[in-house]
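Can you give me the bound-state structure? Components:
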Amino acid sequence: MRAGEGIDRLAAMAIPITPPEFDPALIARYDVAGPRYTSYPTAPQFKAEFDEAALREVIRASNEEPIPRPLSLYVHVPFCMSPCFYCGCNRVITRDVTQADRYLERLYREVELIAPLFDRDRPVRQLHFGGGTPNFLDAAHMGELLESLARHFSFSHAADREYGIEIDPRFADGAYIRNLGELGFNRISVGIQDFDPLVQKAVNRIQSFEQTREVIEAARASGFRSASVDLIYGLPLQSVEGFSRTLDQVVALNPDRVAVYGYAHLPEMFKAQRQIDATDLPDAATRLALFGRALEHLSAAGYVYIGMDHFARASDELVLAQRAGTLQRNFQGYSTHGDCDIVGLGVSAIGRIGDSYSQNARDLIGYYAALDAGRLPLMRGLQLDEDDLIRRELINELMCHGTLDKRAFGARHRLLFDEYFVRERQRLVPLIEDGLVVESPREIRVTSRGRLLLRIIAMCFDAYLDDAAQAPRYSRVI
Amino acid sequence: MQSKPMAGRLPEPRSPMADDGDETRFCGTCAFSSACIAAGYDKPELAELQCLVEHVGPFRAGEHIFRTGDPFRAIFAVRAGTVKTRMVDKEGREQVLGFYLPGEVIGLNAIYPEHFPCDAVALDTAYFCRFSFPAMSALASRIPAVQQHLFRMLSKELGTASLLAGDHSADERVAAFLLDLAGRYAVRGFSGTRFHLSMSRGDIANYLRLAAETVSRVLSRFRSQKLIEIEGRELELLNPKKLREIGQALLPE
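Here's the bound-state model for the whole set.
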């Protein structure tokens, strides 16, 4: 960072949020693979050269800032009781609950190794348990894990702390959720995907509306401040009628946030997906109609489209942050706590500390071996250079706020925007012709037509995408 | 490998780097130029006087410019970067004595003992002018203005201790520290309201005899009171007047 950089970040000016325009023909034309930009550079750019010494140095430097950033802990629980066939996550299918003991033993070791590297006056403002299925851990294990984290890190007691957990309602009841509330969790994210029984059977995830409601109501009753749900469109046997009924049921559950992800069928990469009969998948037109239905239905029910896969109630912090120009991308999608250093704990977890990313070993064997040898289980990472930082901020602005003041951005990073991004602006030309983006001497602005194609727009500014080899590793953009 | 485009980059802003001199001209921030020029001496004539001014560096963050006990042969004017001076006691505890910015001189406290009584450590990439001290004192004996300048620098060096003296609150110390830095940057023609804090919070805390958490807590409070803006190590003084009121007990009139 150089003098003044970032300080005059778009002050609290209100940014109007353009509602997206749904044009199936346009979207179909841009139906190509693309990264989700939960990080920039994206994970395929992380390198093994970023080793334990580099990570320790990055953490040391982060402690020495005048006001060290608060911490955000991500804890990965990789186990699932049963395989959902659509899943592309890093997980291990088992019903052997003793696996949890073996895993937690190593996770505690990781916590003991990494926590002391952070100064104790850095509060954990955000905690997120993801998976796999975090509720694979029973109440006793969960209590023990929280206790370990609270002992080695400094948990925030501020009212605005966000301690969230992903829950599979098939394996949790009201009592379990109340216990999580007592442990300090205040946000819950519930997987639904689709309530249509035919679809549930085809993806091997039978989950009733009642199970789901029990979990969400228990969360509300025990003081959780926010409940979000995940849906997936593009699943086998999905129909617009069936998905409409699901959306009705979702609205009845009254979640604060809804994520509607597009299913990416990549059976050569994700073994579980080979269980899906490709002939059952909806065709491209139906896929789009499903998303269009979700957009229409959720908007009518009072939800605001944030961007990418995310919707939130108009009063939700995400919407307020987007209007205030302070929204950020993070690994869970969008976040209002972009000023935290993220510590990734557990197998395959990704951290973001200072100007670096780091990822743990992606399989249990490597993760266990490193910790058994007393080493941090780091597999790869990246120290961002100045160009990376410039592009990360640019992509963040476009994906979060849909508008970029070229002059202010150029001044902040000491660059002549139009010259520095000559190639990128050439790549934008067809998008401008299609009306996804407008460019003036002053700004780049995503139009209502472009709002559903943010990834395509962001890809124009990705310096690593010339490398064609990256393409098949990403899911389709919508 | 992708190529990182460099077209369209604007030149670096005038950073706190005093490196605009050459064979015949002084650097803008030279610790001695005003004294010498006032006395009618320009750089070529100084060279004739065999006053050896040698450019040294770069020193990387953490490298020593000199160590405690090293024989005293020269003083060093900072051309670019930031330096801390410190002592380490028998138990290995560090005591930060001061921070030096471009245009400022380190090593003056070694004149009498004839060995360095402290370490000087670069906090970021640092460059120096090394003034051979035997030559320097020879020059001072010929040019009264140079001698006066040396005395002035020495007394200023003694004066900086007053920032720490007495029983003052953390708010007073931190406010005075920020304003002291701002003033020193401003005197040398750099921005006195926006600058980079090269020193770690540990070093700031040690220097101000405060806990690191306290320094951060006070800075956070100043930020929420809109007295400063801070992002990473980039600092902006939004309300220097109010900060001066807070730190006034420790600041010169």
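A couple of observations. DSSP finds 16 helices and 20 strands in chain A. The longest helix of chain A spans residues 98-114.
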